[in-house]
Amino acid sequence: MERKETQQPRIDRKTLVLTVVAALLVIAIIIIAVVLLQRSRAEEYNSSYEAAMEHYIAGEYQEALDAARRAYGEDATEEAVLIIARSCAALGDYGGAVSALEGWVDKNGSGEEAGALLEKYRTEAEAPPTESPEEETVSIGGESFALDADTVVLSGVSLTEGELEALAGLENLTNLSLNGCGLEDVSALAGCEKLTTLSLEDNAIEDISPLSGLRSLRALYLSGNSLGALEPLYGLDGLATLDIRGREITDEELEALQSELPGCTILTDEPIESVEEITLGGQTFTSDVTRLELVGAGVTDISALAACTQLEYLDVSYNREIDSISVVAGMPNLRVLDFTDTNVSSLSPILALTKLEVLWLRNTKVTNISALSGHTSITELELSGNDIEDYSPLLSLTGLGSLILSDAGLEDSDLEILKQMTWLDRLHIENNAALTPEAVAELTAALPETIVSAPDFADVTLGDQMFPVDASQVNASGANVENLEGIERFTGLDALFLNDNPGIDISGLGGAASLTYLELARCELEDVSELLSLEALAGLNLMQNRLTDVSALRRMTALTELYLDYNEDLEDVSALSGLRALHTLSLKGTAVTDLSAIAGLTELSTLDIEGCRIESIEPLLGLKNLRTLYAAGCGLSSDELSELGRALPNCTIYT
Question: Which among 456, 539, 526, 455 is positioned nearest to 494, based on CA atoms?
């Protein structure tokens, strides 16, 4: 029997190569995806952890707890669980604090602090409730701090060696700011090993070796010092932010520092790159700009300004989409900051702005102003239109001259804090409907040297403006006035300006019999019969409306000025024939062709009929007091102009 050979299919070289390449590409894609996922999780962890720290420093413990839990979900680090536990404890939930710490310790051991903190909270959770003893405090820089304080902020005060050593005795101290305190020797701070944020700006520090053991630090601000060697910072591998501006630094030093602290953002006076060009909000400018205005420019994110470290004046107001000003923390020279009418909710970045003088944040989402504490350089502050939860941080702003709290939802209880601010020059608390006259009177009495602009409890509201009832002149032009409810409460109204309120209902205006001057330009009026009774008017402006009938003006014999310009369908002005006191009359841009009604207005000195295709100049020839006549576009012949010139020798005619 014959044996048949079976031939195996052969794979050619090209197919084999393609198969191998495809496999390698798949592996590469998987590796890249894993790396990107890890990087994304690291960025999310850092963002959540920093947010947790900001909230904890600001006393926003629930928000700190939420952010710390998000960070822990990305990376179950000891620092994240410590914030979770401390936030729970601050909220009175020792059980939650113990549970969080036990879960971490069971998996990772006692760690650097977690084990000790767990034992402390277990003791406090199991201890029977007792009457709280009087809180023990320590005096530092003229202020008292609880022995369990986690935050100390002092600025511009001299500290003794004993006071500095007392800081090391605050066992829970994690955040310390001693800006502008004249410090030369920081050896006493070597014992503050739990510090995560340390700000020592604007001192006279040269030797920073005592800080080399503060391994928990995540943010260190040393700008404005005469720093020597930077090597003591090399071991602080947990740093996320380091500010050493004000110290000359070579490229080699900076490269070495970046190499030792690869995960740290380092702020220096001499960026490695040269001045860069930035385009934002339709403007192009260089990174060394000192003044920048981006008002209403449609900007949604200002992180591009991170390179603008020399800014002294920054205005990003009326950009509603902006929700963070974190970038300003790197602008140490900032004196004026305006983020009015934005969605910003956190003031934490302002902690680093020791030179800030003017701060405007009207109509934002800010509710907590604890970050303002100790900013004695601020001289002008506006918080109008914000729902501030606690105004007590204002008591530390002893350099403040002007404080604006209009439309801030103030209640009588809030005034108890304002009463203590006797150093204020001006205080604005208008448009706070919940305030009572009695409370405002007490505030005014408590601040005898302060000019207090308070609500007038007898004000009249027109549109979005308020006016005192005894006002003689009221300008509500462009104020979104829809009706004139309450106008009858004015006791001596003489002049009223209501221009640029399209669609306004002027019902009730006829009752303002004391008016001598009235403006209603550009209000889309079609009927002014309501004005019939205003016989005392000497001046009336009705230009750019939709009038076709002005018979309501026939009784206004006191009128000396009347403006009816650009009522394009107005043809009949016969009602004006009796207004013999008129000195100025403008019919420019109307459809008037017959001027016979004004032939008897012999007191006229100025007449504007520009654009009126008049039928005859005869009514003008007897106006001997006319000094100025605007007649361009009237179709007058040269003969007619000559005749007018002879009849009115003292009149200048513009054609």
Answer: 539
pLDDT in tens, 340-373: 999 999 998 898 899 999 999 999 999 999 989 8
Structure tokens at 58: 């600001």
Contacts of 545 (CB under 8 A, 6+ apart): 520, 521, 522, 523, 524, 525, 526, 567
User: What is the crossing angle of helices 61-74 and 13-57, to 10°?
Assistant: 160
Q: How distant, in Å, are the alpha carbons of 55, 81, 238, 318 from that of 39?
A: 24, 21, 17, 35
Residues 6+ apart with CB under 8 A from 459: 466, 467, 468, 469
Average pLDDT over residues 595-615: 95
Distance CA 598, CA 620 (A): 8
Domain end, chosen from 245, 267, 289, is at 267
> 8 by DSSP, 3-state: which?
coil
Which pairing describes strands 426-428 and 402-404: parallel, antiparallel, or unpaired?
parallel
Same domain for 353 and 418, yes or no, is yes
Structure tokens at 633: 């576009």
Q: What are the tokens at 516?
A: 């001598």
| In contact, 472 and 495? CB cutoff 8 Å | yes
Cβ–Cβ under 8 Å, residues 490 and 511: no
Together in a domain, 434 and 325: yes
- Triad 276, 327, 270: Cα angle to 5°: 45
If asked whether residues 166 and 122 sit together in one domain, one would say no
Nearest to 121 by CA among 101, 150, 149: 101
Q: What angle do CA 97, 98, 102 make, to 5 degrees?
A: 120
Average pLDDT over residues 559-577: 96
602 Cβ neighbours under 8 A, 6+ residues apart? 580, 622, 623, 624, 625
- Asked if 46 contacts 82 with a C-beta cutoff of 8 angstroms, the reply is no
For residue range 99-109, what is the model confidence (pLDDT) as tens digits? 888 888 888 88
| Tally of CB atoms within 10 A around 201 | 23
In a domain? residue 485: no
Cβ neighbours for 280, distance < 8 A, ≥ 6 positions apart = 294, 297, 299, 302, 304, 305
Q: Can you read off the two tokens belonging to residue 465?
A: 């403006």
**Backbone conformation region of residue 597, classed left if phi is above 0, alpha if psi is from -120 to 50, else beta:** alpha
Query: Does 253 share its domain with 307?
Result: no
Judge residue 108's burial from the number of C-beta atoms within 10 Å of its C-beta, 0-12 exposed, 13-18 middle, 19 or more buried.
middle
pLDDT of residue 114: 79
| CATH label of the domain that carries residue 113 | 1.25.40.10
Query: Beta strand 197-199 with 219-221: parallel, antiparallel or unpaired?
Result: parallel
Question: If you average pLDDT over every residue of the chain, what do you get?
Answer: 88
* CB-neighbour burial class of residue 66 (10 A; exposed 0-12, middle 13-18, buried 19+): middle
Domain count, the chain: 3
Judging by DSSP bridges, how do beta strands 283-286 and 277-280 pair with one another? antiparallel
Between 135 and 197, name the one with better pLDDT.
197
